[in-house]
C-alpha cells in the first residue's frame, strides 16, 4: 500500500515539476525573453528528445541496433502533413496519423527484419531508412524533390512540450512494465529469454513498433513547425544524429537520452554559423566518449533525486 | 512423460542427430552422456524448441511438441537451464528469478516458489540485490537452475550443470539436482561428467556422433565395460 502511495506521490511530484518547467519557459517566451531563435531551438530540443528516447527503447532497452530512425520520422512528417494540407484535418489528427503510419510501418518492417541480429539488422534498417526517403523523393503526391510545401505552422512550444511528456511517460512506464522487463531480457541474453518462455520476436517487434510510432510523432511536429517536409531532412545523417544522442546519453537510460538531446541540440545551435564543423564536433565527441566512457554519459542508470542524494551524501558508488 | 522418437536434426548441411530416441519416465532422472560433439546439447535444444527436427517425433505427455515455439513449450511445463548458464548479467538475482516466472501470473504461488528457491540456494538469498554477473560460477549455476524452477516445470532440462565448476561445487550442484527430483520434478540431464551423472540418475543413454550407442539403468551403464573405458577413466 505504501509503495502505491509512494508511486502516486512521485508521479504527482514529477507532474508538478513538468508544469513548473513548462510555466517558466512559456512565460519567458510570452514576455519575449526567449526570442524566435531560441524558441526554435527549444522546439528542436523537444523533437530530439522524442527521437532519442524512442530510439533508446529500440536500441537501448530491447537491444536492437537500428540506424533507420529518420525514416520513421519522415513517415510521420509527410503523412501528418498530408492530413492537414490535403484533408484539412486538425493538428492532433495529423500527429496521430503520423504516429499510426510510422508505427504500422515499423510493425510490418520489424516482423521480417528483427529476425536478423547485430550488424545485419543495422544494415537492414539503414537500407530501410533510405528506401523510405527515396520513395518519398519519387512520389509527386508528396512533393517529390521540392518537398511538400504549404504546411500550416501548428507546432508550438506547448504542443512540443506535451508530446515530450507523453513520450517520456509512456516509454518509462513501458520499460518498467513486465513487457519492458521482457524487452530488456532479450537485450541481455536472447537465448535465455527464449528459454524463460518469452516470445522474443513479439517483444522485439513491439519495441520497434512503439519506437517507430513516437518517431512519427516527432516527424509530425517537425514538418508542422518548418512549413515544409523535405526529403533532405531525413537522410542517413539524421538517423546518425539521433543515434549519437542515444549512445551519448547511454543505451538504456531515458534521462541520459534527454540530457544528450538537450546538449547536442545546444551544440548544433551554437555552431549554427559554422555548419561544416557540426559533424566534426559530433564525431569527436563520440570518439572521446568511446574511449573514456563507452557506456554513455549515464550508462544504463537513470538520473534521479535518489542518485543525486547518494552522490552528495558522499556514498559514491561506481556505476561503471 | 517425454518420448523422443527417431529424431534427425541438422545444422545446415551437418547431420547432428541421426535418429535419436529417448524416453523419460515421470519422476526419474535421466541422463545423456557422451563426448564433445556427440549431440547431447542438440538433443536438449530440440526438446526445448530452440532447434526443429527435420524428421522424427518429440512427444510430451502424449502431445507432439516438435516445431512448437519455445515460449509455448515452456508453458507446457518444460524448462531449460541452458549450457553456460546464460543468466541475465546486468540484472539482479531477484530480477533474474522474476523473469523465470515470466509465464506465470499467480503472484502468491510465485512468492512461495521464490521462498523455496531461496531456502534451497541459501547463497542466492544473501545476494538478492546483487548483479547476477558478479556472482561466482557456482552461484550463477544455482541462479540459472533457480530461474528455470521459477516456471514450476514438470520436466527440467539441465545442460552441463558441472561445466567450469570446482569439484566441491559440482558435488553440491548434483545433490541439489537430486533434491529437486525428490520433490517431484522430472530431470533430463546432459553431462560430460559421466561419473557424477550416473551416480544420481535412474536411467542413462550414451550418445556418440549423433547416435544412441548404449542405454540402460544407470547402474548397468556404470558397470558396463565399454562405458567404463570410454567415459569413466578405466
UniProtKB/TrEMBL annotation, chain A:
Its GO CC terms?
plasma membrane
- Where can this protein be found? Cell membrane
Q: Which Pfam families match?
A: BPD_transp_2 (PF02653)
Q: How does it sit in the membrane?
A: Multi-pass membrane protein
Q: What is its main location?
A: membrane
Organism, as annotated: bioreactor metagenome
Query: What is the name of this protein?
Result: High-affinity branched-chain amino acid transport system permease protein LivH
Q: Any idea which UniProt keywords this protein has? A: Cell membrane, Membrane, Transmembrane, Transmembrane helix
**What's one GO MF term for it?**
branched-chain amino acid transmembrane transporter activity
Instruction: Please list every transmembrane segment annotated in the UniProt record, as residue ranges.
Output: 12-34, 40-58, 65-85, 91-111, 118-136, 156-175, 205-227, 247-272, 279-298
Question: Which CDD domains does the UniProt record give?
Answer: TM_PBP1_LivM_like
User: InterPro entries, alphabetically?
Assistant: ABC_transp_permease, LivM-like
UniProtKB/TrEMBL annotation, chain B:
What are the GO BP annotations of this UniProt entry?
L-amino acid transport
Q: Which SMART domains match?
A: AAA
A Pfam family of this chain: ABC_tran
Keywords, alphabetical: Amino-acid transport, ATP-binding, Nucleotide-binding, Transport
Q: Answer yes or no on keyword Transport.
A: yes
Q: Which residues form a coiled coil?
A: none
Which residues are in the ABC transporter domain? Answer: 2-234
**Single Gene Ontology MF annotation:** ATP hydrolysis activity
Instruction: Return the InterPro entries for the record.
Output: AAA+_ATPase, ABC_branched_ATPase_LivF/BraG, ABC_transporter-like_ATP-bd, ABC_transporter-like_CS, BCAA_Transport_ATP-bd_LivF, P-loop_NTPase
What PANTHER family does this protein map onto?
Answer: HIGH-AFFINITY BRANCHED-CHAIN AMINO ACID TRANSPORT ATP-BINDING PROTEIN LIVF (PTHR43820)
State the family named in the UniProt similarity comment for this chain. Belongs to the ABC transporter superfamily.
Q: What name appears for this protein in its UniProt entry?
A: High-affinity branched-chain amino acid transport ATP-binding protein LivF
Name the encoding gene, please: livF_3
